[in-house]
Amino acid sequence: MREHGLHQPPSDVVGVTVVGVTVIRYRQPPDPLLLTVPAAPENLATVRDHLRRWLTLTGVDTESSADALLAVGEAASNAAEHAATGARRNVDLTVTAAVSDGRLRFTVSDNGCWRAPPEVPSSRGHGIRLIRALVDDVELITTEQGTTVTMVKEIRGQRNTGSRERRDD
């Protein structure tokens, strides 16, 4: 018979003490991600691959992970495409990612030159709107030293990846 997670001995056994043991194992969140690559379109796949692996380690739900991957990828793509234009130096792209308190926090920064969007409407230039639709908070800071996009995504749930294991023996 199993009662409240404890194995009960048969009633005719005398002098047996039942001890229940519960083991709970928590996985620590992964270390923050820090990745720096030259700001060039050919490096975007590397950024996405590293971020995808890191997101898998967090154990966040598939929807939150996909939204974050698309938002960070869009910010990185914008930096790779626009930051080096007119720059008088080599331009790097740095991506950071961290998880805490139920939130994913990302930054995409470059040391390039800010280029204002064109005033003439076009089919392009929707990156920031897309990012805002995918994450819960976006901050865009431009300086003479470059541009930083900070994004925060609330985690909607956790995947069942063994990050919390409960076993009653």
Which keywords apply here?
disordered N terminus, 169 residues, five-stranded antiparallel sheet, two-stranded antiparallel sheet, Heat Shock Protein 90, single chain, disordered C terminus, alpha+beta
Word description of this protein:
The protein has 169 residues and is of the alpha+beta class. It has a single domain (28-116, 124-154), classed as Heat Shock Protein 90. 26% of the residues lie in helices and 31% in strands. It has three helices and nine strands; from the N terminus they run ββββααββαβββ. It has helices at residues 44-58, 62-82, 127-134; strands spanning 2-3, 6-7, 22-26, 33-38, 92-100, 103-110, 137-143, 146-154, 164-168. It has a five-stranded antiparallel beta sheet, with helices on one face. Strands 1-2 form a two-stranded antiparallel sheet. It has a two-stranded antiparallel sheet with strand order 3-9. Helix 1 packs antiparallel against helix 2 (62-82) and helix 2 packs antiparallel against helix 3 (127-134). The two termini are 13 Å apart. Residues 1-6 and 160-169 have low confidence and may be disordered.
Q: What would a concise description of this structure say?
A:
The protein is of the alpha+beta class and 169 residues long. The chain is built from three helices and nine strands, in the order ββββααββαβββ.
Query: Could you name the ranges where pLDDT drops below 50 across 5 or more consecutive residues?
Result: 1-6, 160-169
What is the count of structural domains? 1
Radius of gyration: 24 Å
Corresponding CATH architecture: 2-Layer Sandwich
Helix content: 25-40%
Count every helix, treating DSSP H or I runs of 4 or more residues as helices. 3
Question: What does the overall shape look like?
Answer: elongated
Mean pLDDT: 81
Q: What distance lies between the first and last C-alpha atoms, to the nearest angstrom? A: 13 Å
Strand composition percent? 25-35%
Briefly note the CATH topology name.
Heat Shock Protein 90
The CATH superfamily appears as: Histidine kinase-like ATPase, C-terminal domain
Query: Element order, helices and strands?
Result: EEEEHHEEHEEE
Structural class, please? alpha+beta
Briefly, what CATH class?
A: Alpha Beta
Spatial sequence of strands, sheet with the most strands: 4-5-6-8-7
Biggest sheet layout? 5 strands, antiparallel
Count of beta strands: 9
